[in-house]
Amino acid sequence: MRADQTLVQFLREEKRLTGTHIGCDTVSCGACTVLLNGQAVKSCSVLAVQCDGARVDTVEGLCDQELSPLQQAFRECFAVQCGFCTPGFLMTACELMRTVKPKSRQELAVQLAGNYCRCTGYQPILDAIGRVLALPSPSR
Ligand code: FES
Ligand code: FES
């Protein structure tokens, strides 16, 4: 591990966990989101050495043989297009489902503001996470 290596670089280059993506590399897009001791962090913003001894959860841990309910909802709601943003959204959603538990679609959208998607227009992603959170469906 290099002293200047970010957590996302370490995961991808040394652990070969390439599910965590590097988008902007400037702490904006959220593609690199992982859970660090249960808290969603943008792993391009953290040095790997700062994580020594910490628990790091990546998208690879979400499913074993089968998709998790959250991943299944993404598939069924067409919340994945190119998929570049998807691991980051999934990990952010994991934390939200455990902690904040948004009560409305609007609240959910605010909580997801740190994750960008260039493809879906966001609505299918809100549909998918909203389904798992049992939020009321939007009237369209
Ligand atoms: S790559 Fe980390 S926030 Fe975009
Ligand atoms: S699905 Fe392509 S950036 Fe989100």
Can you summarize this structure?
With 140 residues, the protein is mostly helical.
Polypeptide structure, described:
The protein has 140 residues and is mainly alpha-helical. The protein has one domain (7-132): Orthogonal Bundle (DNA polymerase, domain 1). It contains five helices and three strands. A hairpin with a 2-residue loop joins strand 1 (33-36) and strand 2 (39-42). Helix 2 (69-76) packs antiparallel against helix 5. It binds FE2/S2 (inorganic) cluster (FES) (2 copies). One FE2/S2 (inorganic) cluster binds at residues 80-85, 117-120. The site of one FE2/S2 (inorganic) cluster has 12 residues, from loops.
Q: Tally the helices: what do you get?
A: 5
Bound molecules: FE2/S2 (inorganic) cluster
Spans with pLDDT under 50 lasting ≥5 residues? none
In terms of structural class, how would the helical and strand content be classed? mainly alpha
So, the CATH homologous superfamily? Answer: [2Fe-2S]-binding domain
Give the strand order of the largest sheet, numbering strands 1, 2, ... along the chain: 2-1-3
Task: State the separation between the terminal residues, measured CA to CA.
Answer: 50 Å
Question: Main β-sheet, in a few words?
Answer: 3 strands, antiparallel
Can you give the helix content as a percent range? 25-40%
Average pLDDT number: 95
Strand content: 5-15%
> What's the CATH first level?
Mainly Alpha
Query: Quick one: overall form?
Result: elongated
- The radius of gyration computed from the alpha-carbon positions, rounded to a whole number of angstroms, is 15 Å
Q: Under CATH, the topology is which?
A: DNA polymerase, domain 1
Query: H/E series, N to C?
Result: HEEEHHHH
- Strand segment count: 3
CATH architecture field: Orthogonal Bundle
**How many domains make up the 3D coordinates?**
1
